[in-house]
Amino acid sequence: MRDLSDRTTLVVGASRGLGRGIARAFAQAGAPVVAVARTGTALAELAAAGARIQTAVADATDAATAGSLLDRHEPSIVVLVAGAGPLMRPLQHQTWETFSVNWHTDVRIAFHWLREALLRPLRPGATVVVVSSGAALAGSPLSGGYAGAKATQHLITGYARDEADRAGLGITFTAVLPRLTPLTGLGRPAVRAYAARGGQSEDDYLRQLGEPLTPEIAGSALVDLARADPATVAPGYLLTGAGLRDLPR
């Protein structure tokens, strides 16, 4: 269990949902936290709740943002949670613009930040966690290109891991795939849509998912992951209300 007091943790997408829970958990564990998001008001509320949290209002999809913030803060841990909420409609009711929104946000964010982490590079011993989605494994027929975008995030995290190993950089890259949860702004409309599609009540649909994943559980799980021996960190994990579970290789 490694001490986090000198491991600056940069959380991209920290203003809401799982990202907010992750930022708070790292601060509570003693890490200096840089919370990044586009919404200054939400970030200010987060910072007011923890003395170890400083904020950066920025657009994570901008190609210059990753390099600028990595240079400024020199983090030991980077967690990428930011992304767009998909339009919940079946394929035939999507347009190309709505279908592709997560490719232009979620995948773009992962690409820019993974690229900069390798190019800079981050210091040996650094950890980069890309928070993808369980939809990358199971699909998501009501959310356009969301599942494919999340699968691509998972894939390119693996590519970055391989490149870091080939270059001997000593940087750990891993992907975390959270299960659908009703406790975030992203998950609530998805639960409603899939329950209606299946002719179920939301309660019945949720019972199928098991214990709900909360922002607090997500935060605790990622703190444990950051504290682990890098040699034991797997390329990818499924994250549920019961915590992290290794993905099959």
Characterization of this structure:
This protein has an eight-stranded mixed beta sheet, with helices on both faces. Helix content is 45%, strand content 16%. It has a single domain, classed as Rossmann fold, CATH 3.40.50. The chain has 249 residues and is of the alpha/beta class. The chain has ten helices and eight strands.
List the helices and strands and how they pair.
Blueprint: E1 9-12, H1 17-28, E2 33-37, H2 40-48, E3 53-57, H3 63-73, E4 77-80, H4 96-99, H5 101-119, E5 127-131, H6 135-138, H7 146-167, E6 172-178, H8 187-197, H9 202-209, H10 215-227, E7 236-240, E8 243-246
Parallel strand pairs: 1-2, 1-4, 2-3, 4-5, 5-6, 6-7
Antiparallel strand pairs: 7-8
Helix pairs in contact: 1-10, 3-5, 5-7, 8-9
Strand content: 15-25%
What's the overall geometry? Answer: globular
Instruction: Give the full name of the CATH homologous superfamily.
Output: NAD(P)-binding Rossmann-like Domain
Tally of domains: 1
The separation of the N and C termini measures 25 Å
Q: In terms of structural class, how would the helical and strand content be classed? A: alpha/beta
Proper CATH architecture = 3-Layer(aba) Sandwich
Task: Please estimate the helix content.
Answer: 40-55%
Tally the beta strands.
8
Mean pLDDT: 96
Strand order of the largest sheet: 3-2-1-4-5-6-7-8
SSE pattern: EHEHEHEHHEHHEHHHEE
- Number of helices, where a helix is a run of at least 4 consecutive DSSP H or I residues: 10
What's the CATH C level?
A: Alpha Beta
Radius of gyration in whole Å, from Cα?
17 Å
Largest sheet: 8 strands, mixed
Low-confidence stretches: none
What is the third-level CATH name, the topology?
A: Rossmann fold
